[in-house]
Amino acid sequence: MKQLLIVEDDPGLQSQMRWCFTDAIEVSVASDRESALTALRRMEPQVVTLDLGLPPDPGGASEGFALLEDILRLAPMTKVIVVTGREDKENAVKAIGMGASDFYQKPLDADILTFVVNRAFRLAELELENRELASQSNGTRIKGIVAASPEMLAICRTIEKVAPTDVTTLITGETGTGKELLARALHDLSSRADKPFAAINCAAIPENLLESELFGFEKGSFTGATQSKKGKIENANGGTLFLDEIGDMPMALQAKLLRFLQERVVDRVGSVKPVPVDVRVVCATHRDVQELITQGTFREDLYYRISEITLDVPALRDRDGDALVVAQSLLQSLGKQMDRPNLTFTEDAIKAIKNHPWPGNVREMINKVKRATIMADGKRVTAADLELNCDMAGPESQLNLRQVRENAERAVILQALQSCSFNMAQASRLLGITRPTLYNLTDKYRIETSAESPSA
Ligand SMILES: Nc1ncnc2c1ncn2[C@@H]1O[C@H](COP(=O)(O)OP(=O)(O)OP(=O)(O)O)[C@@H](O)[C@H]1O
């Protein structure tokens, strides 16, 4: 609902202004600084019209400027339209300089006033949309990848550039950093997208089966080969072949793969007839290939063949700000999947997510967020639900976080009550809450509400 606060000390003008607006805008009025601040706290209006001439200085502008300062300090997103006399341009300009969004000159003209106010509402709306978009924005259009860090966005830009070409790409990085996801992106953003994406994990298949898995075999080529079968490479014809954990490929097979990459033909096991295949090859490994070459377990010539372009995916802990963005996105999607929507992280969880080194990268995070989605009580996910340590001030304080918040709330309520001599109406105005809410809170925190026996 649109909320407008009119701050005007002239009762006649107050009601004239009030009648300028339709039911679509909820209008409140205040005639001095104090009541204006109470209304601001309670309604949080998007737009305020502020007559600078307020008591005790109705002829000047000092009280109006003081209120303008208060409003922009307490609620800086509020659009304040300053109302001045016809000859008062100087103060209008000064108010704009202080942060007012517009000004309006008396005498009242209903059309101009509604125009100016509606424009301010539109501006407030646009700013809100912008803030929401910025907070949700995922800096990449690559499907499935959530990233905001410059490090990961640079990788995504490279993927977008490399995808339409056919160059053989090597993706390196720790386990769980998203190498396979990026390999799929290379495929999805290429002209091969509607053809197969065939993935094979070279570390997961026993050495004696890997060759026939990759290259296929002819009937009778070994015991049990009762009929011919195409391998992964042939099956990927026209599409993309993803060789995961290429660093674990046995030496003997590396030679055969090299021949395939050079000649673009496959020799099925037991066949002497090469079959031409058109595939784009993407490889990945979490190992240090240079080190493997030095150790003599990886062929240098194969390395140069597969690494026409190399992408080194940074670990999650080395991506500035990504851990939280990815965790929040996972919490949303896993929450939806598990029928626990609208979960949010507590402050200790946010701190813990930022501080954890994530040795298993996004895969580790998926497991932790999944667990927390199941374990969380209510709508808030804590560091404990994530099984993470929150080292804000030693583990003892973790248990006390809720207590810390409640203590702060209790102290502010008590302060407000004391400053108003325990007048509930005044204190609730000061706190920007209703009287019933204040009574609930004083009950909750067992605060005596009479001045004679404060429980401080
Ligand atoms: N930036 C990201 N945004 C969202 N999800 C991601 C991101 N990076 C990785 N993931 C998810 O994390 C999981 C692990 O990613 P992936 O399998 O691509 O990692 P990997 O580097 O290939 O791991 P490994 O080396 O162990 O094979 C997948 O479920 C993937 O969807």
Write the layout of secondary structure elements.
Layout: E1 2-7, H1 11-18, E2 25-30, H2 33-43, E3 47-51, H3 62-74, E4 79-84, H4 89-98, E5 102-105, H5 110-136, H6 150-162, E6 169-172, H7 179-188, E7 197-201, H8 207-215, E8 216-217, E9 229-230, H9 232-235, E10 240-244, H10 251-263, E11 265-266, E12 275-276, E13 280-285, H11 289-295, H12 300-306, E14 309-312, H13 322-337, E15 344-345, H14 347-355, H15 361-375, E16 380-381, H16 395-399, H17 401-419, H18 424-431, H19 435-444
Parallel strand pairs: 1-2, 1-3, 3-4, 4-5, 6-13, 6-14, 7-10, 10-13, 15-16
Antiparallel strand pairs: 8-9, 11-12
Helix pairs in contact: 2-3, 10-12, 13-15, 17-18, 18-19
Residues 144-147, 173, 175-181, 244, 284, 286, 326, 362-363, 366 line the site of adenosine-5'-triphosphate (ATP).
CATH superfamily of the largest domain: P-loop containing nucleotide triphosphate hydrolases
CATH class of the largest domain: Alpha Beta
CATH architectural category of the largest domain: 3-Layer(aba) Sandwich
How far apart are the termini?
39 Å
Distinct bound molecules: adenosine-5'-triphosphate
| Major β-sheet annotation | 5 strands, parallel
Overall average residue pLDDT: 87
